[in-house]
Amino acid sequence: MKQGWEIKTIGDVCVSASSNVSQNKLADNEGDYPIYGASGLIKNVSFCHRDKPYLSIVKDGSGVGRITKMDAYTSVIGTLQYILPKENIDLDYLNYSLMSVDFKKYVAGAAIPHIYFKDYKNEPFLWMPLPEQQRIVSILDEAFAAIAKVKTNAEQNIKNAKKLFESYLQGVFEKKGEGWGEKEFGEIITTLTDYHANGSYEVLKANVELKETEDFAWMIRSTDFENDFENDFRYIDEYGYNFLSKSKVFGGEIIMSKIGNAGKVYLMPRVDRPCSLAMNLFLIRLDEKKAIPEFIFHYLKSYSGDFQIKSRLQGATTKTITKDNVRSIIIPLPTLKDQKVIINKFTALSVETKRLETIYQQKILDLEELKKSVLQKAFNGKL
Hints:
The chain is of the alpha+beta class. 39% of the residues lie in helices and 20% in strands. The protein is built from twelve helices and 19 strands. The chain has helices at 10-13, 91-99, 117-120, 130-175, 185-188, 201-207, 222-226, 238-243, 293-301, 303-311, 323-327, 336-378, and strands at residues 6-9, 14-18, 33-37, 40-45, 54-58, 67-70, 75-76, 80-85, 124-127, 181-184, 189-193, 217-220, 235-236, 248-249, 254-257, 265-267, 275-277, 281-286, 330-333. Helix 4 (130-175) runs antiparallel to helix 12. It is elongated. 24% of the residues are buried.
């Protein structure tokens, strides 16, 4: 360690201050001074607690332990605390130092997690004279700016990869090809059913119990598709599964949300256990002599298909789509042979797109690890 440097504690170099402001009491307060919560700006109010820049830390709820540098003439609500540097402590240096602390080990509480200054105030703090603090800040600013630039480029590359697939998808359905025709969706559907097919909601409720613990069959919900069928399943017993005989899914079906994110389209994957469909989803099976599910799925996900779906949604606040409106969607349709060729091209491009996304997602993760490494070196005196 360099001469003049020493190890102190967070409690030696800064103090915390609490806010007594409750968000639900701000409704009628208007003004020029921003006030913030854990999710960001709440509104402008008639007062401010701090006339100089400071740090805030989320002390209760979601995001607990997150440090943010705040501007002068702002305030925070009571779920956050103020972190104020003592004399001869550079605010940016303190900010970087606190970014290197693992606050998770101080978090308590299950339902509402919380963290207190008294618990982490003894964390070590590498103290050095003010000019040295500012030199370290300058180095870290430059390093973090470079990392942020690379991260932005990686994020843009992920967007570009997705746009490439979407552009190709759109091109196929716009240009079409020789021998393409059009049919109403209803002409190529053999089954269009939902959770209510076997009776009223009250009857279903009396015969089908939804469980969080492992049982005979999965009750497939839209969240399962969004989670790539990885966790948080809901289950029904064998009696409930057989009661919902028309809602059984085996893989390869087109699924559409009829209420709550209405019109969202999914393709049911092959799974190795019995599955039934949740009440807010349509199950759509196709006449396989006319259409291949993967082809129709890709069309419904294209700009043209999505536009048709959205134009058929009903309701002012809660959007829904009816079976008749689903059946009326116009589907551009080549021969089965051409559908297979197009699907193969979609699949190959999708695989490459996902490969690129995985590469850039890993780069982003690596950059976050690099930031941690730089901070660790800085506050171990090795930068």
